[in-house]
Amino acid sequence: MVKICCIGAGYVGGPTMAVIALKCPKVQVVVVDISTPRITAWNSDQLPIYEPGLDDVVKQCKGKNLFFSTDVEKHVAEADIVFVSVNTPTKTQGLGAGKAADLTYWESAARMIADVSKSDKIVVEKSTVPVKTAEAIERILTHNNKGINFQILSNPEFLAEGTAIKDLFNPDRVLIGGRETSGGQKAIAALRDVYAQWVPIDKIICTNLWSAELSKLAANAFLAQRISSVNAMSALCEATGADVTQVSQAIGKDTRIGPKFLNASVGFGGSCFQKDILNLVYICECHGLAEVANYWKQVIKINDYQKTRFVNRIVSSMFNTVSGKKVAILGFAFKKDTGDTRETPAIDVCKGLIGDKAKISIYDPQVQEEQITRDLALKKFDWDHPVHLQPMSPTSVKQVACVWDAYEATKGAHGICILTEWDEFKLLDYKRIFDGMEKPAFVFDGRNVVDAEKLRKIGFIVYAIGKPLDAWLKDMPAVA
Ligand code: NAI
Fold this sequence. Notes:
Helix content is 43%, strand content 13%. It is of the alpha/beta class. It folds into two domains: 3-199, Rossmann fold (3-Layer(aba) Sandwich), CATH 3.40.50.720; 223-475, 3-Layer(aba) Sandwich (Rossmann fold), CATH 3.40.50. The strands form three sheets. Strands 3-2-1-4-5-6 form a six-stranded parallel sheet, with helices on both faces. A six-stranded parallel sheet has the order 11-10-9-12-13-14, sandwiched between helices. It has a two-stranded parallel sheet with strand order 7-8. Helix 5 (104-116) links the parallel strand 4 and strand 5. Helix 9 (209-240) crosses helix 11 (273-286), helix 11 (273-286) packs antiparallel against helix 12 and helix 12 (290-317) crosses helix 13 (345-355). It is elongated. The N and C termini lie far apart (60 Å). The structure holds 1,4-dihydronicotinamide adenine dinucleotide.
């Protein structure tokens, strides 16, 4: 029986390994983590992450060929294939701070693998890492040369949160990079055999190590660039009277462009896009490619611009001040169908409003108050370094309330900001909400989820990203 151990029981390690266990009943999969609360949650009925379909997959294999444990060293020592799916955040200090990937967690995992291994192993990079990381990992693994053969593979994960199980069941492709030696090719074949249990062979792409590592960064950069492109267009649409949805539809019909990922919004979030582009920028700079680095940096600049533009629009529409006014925030997760708030645009929007002294009332169906409080207290890039936790300042605490109902959040509010595209926000009784709000009552739709015309008929002043502006909004131009 092949034994797989995955280091890191997070958003990637957990779902990926659960699906491997389900699809390969003859493989034993153990997911290990240094975080005891995370492992305890995986071993309970209340999984640590919310992902549609995940509960069901875990239930089917947990205790049979899928296990979760904090006994990291034991399970690594026993495994034939070790996946490393630990966090690779942006460095906050020292060389490359604010750009380079922080490989502290990766390095410590690699050192531990080297120390505890007594048999040959395939070590798989599942985390997103800078190009050439495999070379560094190889050096760490072989530093004390115990005669053990380690083969390093790069197998980046392309799942999207919110659709992770669907993506894992039916991936667009699986990418495996390895050394072009016979040992490297044998290792590629062993991992390919695992995926081939359910993924058609023509969807499993095998490359050299560096192509696989770079492809993941490139894929995220292209995806984020698409969002920034449509968001840049949304600002021009508002200025000209064009409608970004119509523009997206028109350009998406071109088969070279395609219709997906063309929705304008308040900006992209999530743990990966910004971090991976910054990492790409850093690598370009290290190779003296300043023009290329600047090109990709612009994707992040537009994303920041879009968030600032949104906050400025809110404040300017409400007579240039939100001081003491209640503003309801509907949605805090970075997208629907996840409870993940890492780099969510909601953090910047809320901080912007708090900075202008608004009182904000937040409702998200999947995000706990504790998480929101923590997110609003953290400095940029600190979110993936749990040790940096800081308490929230007393003023900010007074300005923020988290509630468990959209109606409660909007009661007595001057404005509503929709920041996550949860389906339930389309179904709210907006007449009831309008009746309970201060007047004039505003809706700022950062995801284009509500029917703006219907809301205007009720009496709301509605701002929807990239859509023609109400007369009110035209009279109060926002300065970005
Ligand atoms: P996460 O933060 O949810 O999970 C990482 C886990 O690794 C944590 O539970 C942490 O306690 C554990 N860990 C860290 N160091 C450890 C060590 N030495 N030994 C044992 N456990 C350790 O991170 P997530 O989101 O799962 O991401 C992991 C990697 O996958 C990152 O490189 C990310 O860029 C990449 N990725 C993430 C995607 C996503 O949608 N979240 C998608 C594709 C790739």
